[in-house]
Amino acid sequence: MEQRRTRRFQLQLPLSVTRSGAAQVELAGRTRNISSSGVLFTTEREPDFGGPIEYVITLTRDAAQVVNLRCLGKIVRADRVDPGRDEASPAYRIAATLERYEFVRQI
Predict the structure, then answer these.
(1) Quick one: CA dihedral 84, 30, 44, 73, positive or negative?
(2) What is the pLDDT of residues 40-90, one digit of tens each?
(3) How far apart are CA 84 and CA 12, in angstroms?
(4) I need a surface site. Which of 18, 21, 23, 58 has the fewest CB within 10 A?
(5) Separation CA 99–CA 66 (nearest Å)
(6) Gap between the Cα atoms of 40 and 93, Å rounded
(7) How confident is the model at residue 98 (pLDDT cuts 50, 70, 90)?
(8) Residue 30: band (very low, low, confident or very high) from pLDDT cuts 50, 70, 90
């Protein structure tokens, strides 16, 4: 039985990678699960493994207010996955730490 330090929540939320290593990027993805120490997400391209990463998770998308969680961490695992029949499916599963975060509201 697998033992984890923190509980993981199975949440499928929009995510965007804004910085990978020293490079500013625009990379869309979707979370698979989230814990207080990290996130597992899928995306079409592989960010720099082992380097710092900045990503934004969209928590709410209602018309009145958008709430984002801006996170800083590093990539600890990157697995290529079979996209299956749908070629538009994400090709990578990325595990990243969650070392610092801040809530960002857009009006």
Answers:
(1) negative
(2) 999 988 887 778 999 999 998 676 788 899 999 999 999 998 765 555 666
(3) 19
(4) 23
(5) 23
(6) 7
(7) very high
(8) very high
Q: Is the dihedral of CA 100, 26, 23, 41 positive or negative?
A: positive
Which residue's entry shows tokens 């599963």? 93
| Pairing label, strands 38-43, 23-34 | antiparallel
- Overall residue count recorded for the chain in this entry: 107
C-alpha dist (Å) from residue 103 to 29, 71, 87, 100: 19, 9, 34, 11
Instruction: State the DSSP H helix or E strand holding residue 14, giving kind and residue range, or none if neither.
Output: strand 14-20
pTM score, whole prediction = 0.84
Domains of the chain (ranges, CATH numbers): 14-106 (2.40.10)
